[in-house]
Design brief:
- The protein is α/β, with parallel strands linked by helices.
- It is built from 8 helices and 13 strands.
- The strands form 4 sheets. The protein has a 5-stranded parallel β-sheet with strand order 3-2-4-5-6, with helices on both faces. It has a 4-stranded antiparallel β-sheet with strand order 8-9-10-11, with helices on one face.
- Strand 9 and strand 10 form a beta hairpin.
- Helix 6 packs across helix 7 and helix 6 packs across helix 8.
- The N terminus is likely disordered.
- Keywords: DNA-binding, Phosphoprotein, Transcription, Transcription regulation, Two-component regulatory system.
- This is Response regulator transcription factor.
Amino acid sequence: MNIQQEQHHILVIEDDEHINKIISDVLRRENYICTSAFSGSEAKLLVSQYNYQLIILDLMLPGLSGEAFMHYVREELKSHIPVIVLSAKDELDHKLQLFDLGAVDYVTKPFEVRELLARINVHIGKNGLVESTHQYKHKKLILDCNARSVTVNKHLLNLTRQEYRILELLLKSPTRVFTKRDLYELAWDDVYLGEDKTITVHISNIRNKIKQYDDQAYIDTVWGIGFRISP
């Protein structure tokens, strides 16, 4: 893998617009990419669709509590993304409960932004040098992001742009089940209008192209929901 300069993407989940803006502005000045969410429900949608290197999480959120969001990230998404909790509660038992849920750090409100930034830098490893994943390997398949190529048993697959993108999405999030809407909107970058056959046809084409060189299953159908990479 190559070592290169990379901007880290942080999700800031805080329903107080003023606090959210302060945190986001500081992080952007430090060359981080920031996305703001103002409810637990909005954050749940974002984290299911995009990759973040760290999450800053307030607990008192509308729609979905911070604790419930943590449970979703750790238990349903099976994600190990670092989560720094913001809370006005300072009791030891409460902190221990959040660490049990999977938080990596805990900052008590009110807080100094410089302290929060220091903790972020520690957990995200901000030295500007990160391993950049250019290849995703699964069974006998290798997807190369730089070359935008896919090989199976060292045979190059002739994929369309959307077929490549669908396979890339599935490989990058191997535990996630993608609905047809998910795959269409992310692979086509367009609004899904309920057309049912497009994704099914593309999945079938990908399977057939892989099957020329390997009989193993690579894409599972999760009936009534969508598709995921085969375990």
